[in-house]
Design a protein that fits this description.
Elements: E1 6-8, E2 19-22, E3 26-32, H1 46-56, H2 60-69, E4 76-82, E5 87-93, E6 103-106, H3 128-136, H4 139-149, H5 158-165, E7 193-196, E8 201-205, E9 214-218, H6 219-224, H7 245-255
Antiparallel strand pairs: 1-2, 2-3, 3-4, 4-5, 5-6, 7-8, 8-9
Helix pairs in contact: 1-2
């Protein structure tokens, strides 16, 4: 039907996309956000717009254009990457009328980009909902922790990405304790994915959270049918915490809490 095949990591019954990559190496991943904008009933949910991106976008620029032109029902912070160009940006998108004030791209001239659950561009500084998320949730703390972990120069490998996703320490490598909401790995992650958009390899954590094995998938075979069978790819093994007495104690403590 003229659309690109794509892989989406989500939940049963979900027709939109929150994390995915298409056969052209275009990646999208979104964190939901809140702004002061009113929700329009006839606007389009962001996950459906991101599905359109994967179906139609051939380049990073085309992906950005599709999101910028959409009438969004909800706000979101979208990572867009292009494996061919070896480039990624963050698009902070609000439901307000499409234009420069609503769709703000950052990271266009940076080697590393990252995001949590709040928008950081100046146009959103006065937004009450966005500021509340930054101040009263763990979003601001996790954003700063990511800045620490991603500051080191040099090559960033998929193994490094898994290590960041499993990070349980705080700013300055402070001990936080298991399950602390300020940790990147707070033991309640809904999904955890690593994508090499240039090599076209996808790793998906089996859970719980990021502790289980990250299983590798050959996207060249799955999306482009290159080769007669999937390439033999290395998984990333489970975190040692998963089988530790410390984790068992943590689970028992949770079970004993009366909510």
């Amino acid at each position: 039907d003229g659309k690109y095949p794509f892989v989406s990591i989500g939940w049963a019954g979900m027709i939109g996309v929150v994390t995915g990559i298409n056969a052209r190496g275009i990646v999208v991943a979104t964190n939901p956000a809140r702004t002061d904008d009113a929700r329009e009933a006839n606007a389009v949910p962001l996950p459906l717009v991101l599905r359109t991106v994967l179906e139609e976008a051939d380049t990073l620029e085309q992906a950005v254009e599709i999101i910028e032109a959409a009438e969004l029902r909800t706000a979101g912070i979208v990572l867009i990457a292009d494996g061919v160009q070896r480039k990624a940006v963050i698009l902070e998108a609000a439901p307000r009328a499409a234009g420069a004030e609503a769709r703000v791209v950052r990271g266009d001239d940076e080697q590393v980009v990252w995001a949590t659950d709040h928008m950081i561009r100046e146009v959103f500084e006065a937004d009450a909902h966005n500021e509340r998320i930054r101040r009263t949730t763990s979003s601001g703390y996790r954003f700063d922790r990511l800045a620490e972990l991603l500051a080191a120069p040099g090559t960033f490998t998929p193994e490094d990405a898994v290590a960041v996703l499993r990070d349980r320490r705080g700013l300055g490598n402070a001990e936080l304790g298991l399950g602390n909401r300020n940790a990147l790995e707070n033991l309640h992650t809904a999904q955890s994915v690593v994508i090499d958009a240039t090599s076209m390899v996808l790793w998906v954590a089996e859970g719980p959270s990021t502790l289980g094995r990250y299983r590798a998938f050959d996207l060249r075979f799955l999306l482009a049918r290159q080769g007669t069978r999937p390439a033999a790819l290395a998984d990333f093994g489970a975190d040692r915490l998963l089988y530790s007495e410390e984790y068992r104690d943590y689970q028992e403590a949770l079970e004993g809490i009366d909510y």
